[in-house]
Automatic annotation (TrEMBL):
Protein name: Nuclear pore protein
Superkingdom classification of source: Eukaryota
Family membership: Belongs to the nucleoporin interacting component (NIC) family.
Chief location: nucleus
Organism: Bicyclus anynana
Pfam short name (any one): Nic96
Localization per record: Nucleus, Nuclear pore complex
Lineage, top ranks: Eukaryota, Metazoa, Ecdysozoa, Arthropoda, Hexapoda
Keywords recorded for this protein, A-Z: Membrane, mRNA transport, Nuclear pore complex, Nucleus, Protein transport, Translocation, Transport
Length: 815
């Protein structure tokens, strides 16, 4: 039984061995039991150390025949440390190493170059994208630039040059809305008075203010009221810089007084509206004057808890110091004095100070009064519970310029009035004084648009800037508000008209700029840029209005010293291309030009003829010769007309006369030019006139040639005397070619090729004629062919090679 079991076990083992050897997928492994045990222990220890994840990785890669441990060992031996390190020097005799180094150097150089190129390409693409994004916002941003800069921006337009064949832009439907049109009518009327030399005329801000009344917009009306008030100061002179004049103490006093006057007038109107709306509660009565008005207003304003902390009794059942304050706030210091006198003799010291203030409202108090008021304020009033009393002492005595008086000054108007009131031209305590520049800097730079929520309340920000004499930032701000842009532009014109607008020395400056020579924080407004941005909308549809706006720039110069009005008119002519409308039309029979839009602005410094010449010169620079001919003709420069006409005609003289093409247009223009020449008093230079005349005849010659009217073509070229057809004409034509202008010589190759074609065609017709007649004709054709070849060889002008070869072939065909 045991033997049988052993035999059976042996048989199974042999069968298993056979199956293993027959399996080609698995390799045969010969290991002893000890080796198997050792491998088992090693595998077990590896599993314990690396964990199940590492085991799964081995199983995954092992199923594909990959030894993960061997690959890991190979990866550890790899190192990139020396990949990009400089190669070690080698001996000159080691060719193999030298070639290897050269190969590696080439590879490294290529990698380095590709890396640099990739970085550069990325950098270029980044900047290209950034510039593209920037260009979209540049126009809006550049007009809001603030700060001293020497990087001026270019005002000049750079339009794409239109094709000569394009139809010129015509002025069509007006682009002005009703508000813009109303302003434009006033501008036109005002400029007409200036052109006629009217000495006395209504100020422009008065005219614009009257127009604004028709808009039924209270905010716009209020803006113009501010401009009218601030412009009502002693007249400034044209030759003085407005910003320097604004720094004059006298002018500053006037600006401060006008600012206070507006705020006081407005507040008095507000008090009247409040009292009128509540007559029973105000109990004003029928007595006119400031005192009854303030009494009624104080009764409405101060009720219940609002009167807590007030001191020094009452006047007619109203608290004393609120009455005094609101009398001053409404601009009636005498009413405030009346309140103090009515209150009794307890306030004689302050009454004396107020009397001194009334005598010199813009001056500080006398030294004695100022000392007494300051002393009393420091000891008693500063700690008083009555905010109106503190405010009144500060307004009259300038006791504490740093106090904001927030209990009293609840609006921007109140705050500004208090600040303007404490600015005095002569202060005894300079360390605590507030200057006009300090207030301007505080509003513009310290507070700015953010503090005043300017885009939500544009009127408030405009008001605080304008009432502190900062017209330039105020107008620049309005120009960024679409609703108020039109009003801002005309406010700038109104202030410029009375020499109150500070403009930069360079017309290419940003819209708002800082001049380092100006006092802080004054700005300069680029009026030229402001007008250009405004007019661009309608300059093509309403050229007359555009010119009237440009006329305000007649006293400004561009960087090259040219009159800015004339420069802008030149640009408008180039963009519109309606030269007859702007400059007038030239009558070819009489040589008299009709009036254009620009003629109304002619004066000793402005000449529409000079503008036309400038426009024509720029048209030539742009290559628009056809337009330049028209403008030079309007300007009366016939010599330039003929020069450009010859240049253009020489290019197309041999072309077919397609309808509407350049050649057809030049042919029509030639009739006009010829009539102008006959009517002109002065004749142009003979060589130029000769070239023009002969080119016109050659144009007729090619017209006959293209219609195969060869006899007429030969007759025309014979009368032209450019090319000889007989031996007797050869010498004169050669001499004429040597003295001819280049435009005429450039047409010769085409003329000679056309004559070759004509002569060959006539040679072919000889077969139909009688022998005797054909012989004579052939001799004549041979003579012409020989003369043409001789002429081509003798003139001092090198023609294209095909012209010479065609002449030679023609002469051969004649034999």
């Amino acid at each position: 039984m045991a033997d049988e079991d052993f035999s059976k076990l042996l048989q199974q083992a042999e069968q298993l061995t056979t199956e293993i050897e027959g399996n080609e997928e698995l390799p045969r492994v010969e290991r002893s039991l000890g080796q198997v045990l050792e491998a088992s222990h090693e595998l077990y220890s590896r599993v314990i150390q690396s964990g199940p994840n590492h085991l799964q990785a081995h199983v995954l890669f092992g199923s594909k025949g990959i030894d993960l441990q061997q690959i890991s060992q190979k990866l550890e031996t790899l190192s990139s440390k020396r990949t990009f390190e400089p190669l070690q020097p080698i001996a000159d005799s080691d060719i193999e190493s030298f070639l290897k180094n050269e190969r590696e150097n080439a590879i490294l150089s290529l990698i380095d170059e590709v890396n640099k190129n990739s970085l550069q390409t990325t950098e270029d693409q980044k900047w290209e994208h950034m510039l593209s994004e920037w260009n979209k916002e540049k126009i809006k941003l550049m007009n809001a630039m603030i700060g001293p800069s020497q990087n001026w921006l270019d005002l000049k337009r750079t339009p794409e040059p239109p094709s000569i064949a394009d139809t010129p832009k015509k002025f069509g439907h007006s682009m002005l809305d009703s508000i813009e049109a109303a302003y434009a009518r006033q501008v036109q009327q005002y400029n007409k008075l200036i052109s006629h030399g009217a000495k006395s005329r209504t100020a422009l801000h008065q005219k614009f203010s009257q127009v604004a009344d028709e808009f039924n917009d209270p905010k716009v009306k209020e803006m113009w009221e501010i401009i009218k008030t601030m412009a009502n100061i002693p007249a400034l002179v044209r030759d003085e810089d407005p910003l320097k004049a604004r720094g004059n103490p006298t002018i500053q006093q006037c600006l401060i007084a006008q600012g206070k006057k507006y705020l006081e007038k407005r507040y008095k109107q507000y008090m009247s509206d409040v009292v009128r709306a509540n007559p029973a509660a105000a109990m004003r009565g029928g007595e006119p004057g400031t005192f009854p008005l303030v009494r009624g207003y104080v009764g409405l304003r101060l009720q219940g808890q609002n009167i807590q902390g007030l001191t020094d009794g009452v006047v007619d059942d109203r608290p004393l110091w609120p009455m005094v304050y609101y009398c001053l706030r409404s601009g009636d210091a005498n009413a405030a004095l009346y309140c103090l006198r009515k209150a009794g003799r307890d306030h004689e010291e302050f009454t004396a100070a107020l009397e001194d203030h009334i005598r010199n409202p813009e001056q500080a108090l006398s030294d004695k009064l100022q000392t007494d008021i300051n002393s009393k304020y420091r000891v008693q009033i500063r700690h008083s519970t009555d905010p109106y009393k503190r405010a009144v002492y500060c307004v009259v005595g300038c006791c504490d310029v740093s106090d904001e008086h927030s209990e009293v000054a609840r609006t921007a108007d109140d705050y500004l009035w208090l600040k303007l009131s404490v600015i005095k031209s002569r202060s005894n305590n300079k360390t605590e004084s507030l200057t006009y520049s300090d207030l301007q800097k505080m509003i513009l730079e310290e507070y700015g648009e953010t503090h005043y929520h300017a885009h939500e309340k544009p009127l408030v920000y405009f008001q605080v800037l304008t009432l502190t004499g900062q017209f330039e930032p105020a107008i620049e701000f309005l120009s960024r508000i679409p609703r108020y842009q039109v009003h801002g532009v005309h406010m700038a014109l109104a202030l410029h008209d009375v020499y109150m607008l500070g403009t930069p020395r360079n017309v290419q400056a940003p819209l708002l700029s800082v001049d380092t020579d100006d006092p802080v924080p004054l700005r300069r407004l680029n009026l030229a840029r402001l007008i250009l941005l405004y007019v661009r909308k309608f300059e093509l549809s309403d050229p007359s209005d555009a010119l009237n706006y440009y006329f305000f720039l007649r006293n400004l110069k561009d960087p090259s010293g040219k009159n800015l009005f004339m420069c802008f008119c030149t640009d408008l002519a180039l963009e519109s291309r309606d030269y007859d409308l702007l400059f007038g039309r030239m009558d070819p029979s009489t040589g008299v030009r009709s009036a254009g839009l620009l003629d109304q602005f002619n004066n000793p410094n402005i000449d529409s003829k000079v503008i036309a010449l400038n426009a024509a010169e720029q048209l030539v620079n742009k290559g628009l010769f056809e337009d330049a001919i028209i403008v030079y003709d309007i300007a009366g420069n016939l010599e330039k007309v003929l020069e450009l006409f010859c240049v253009l005609l020489a290019q197309v003289v041999s072309a077919g006369g397609e309808a509407g093409g350049l050649r057809a247009r030049l042919a029509a223009l030639a009739e006009h030019v010829s009539r102008r020449l006959r009517a002109a008093e002065a004749s142009p230079p003979p060589p130029l006139l000769d070239a023009y005349t002969k080119l016109c005849k050659l144009c007729t010659f090619f017209d006959h040639f293209h219609t195969e009217n060869y006899e007429a073509a030969l007759e025309t070229v014979r009368s032209c005397e450019v090319v000889p057809l007989r031996q007797s004409e050869l010498e004169a034509c050669v001499a004429g070619a040597r003295a001819a202008r280049g435009e005429l010589l450039r047409a010769l190759p085409a003329v000679l090729r056309a004559l070759c074609h004509i002569l060959i065609a006539q040679r072919q017709k000889l077969s139909t004629l009688a022998a005797h007649t054909a012989t004579k004709q052939l001799e004549w054709l041979r003579e012409q062919a020989e003369v043409l070849n001789t002429f081509a060889g003798n003139i001092a002008y090198r023609m294209p090679g095909d012209t010479y070869s065609q002449l030679a072939q023609m002469q051969i065909l004649m034999h």
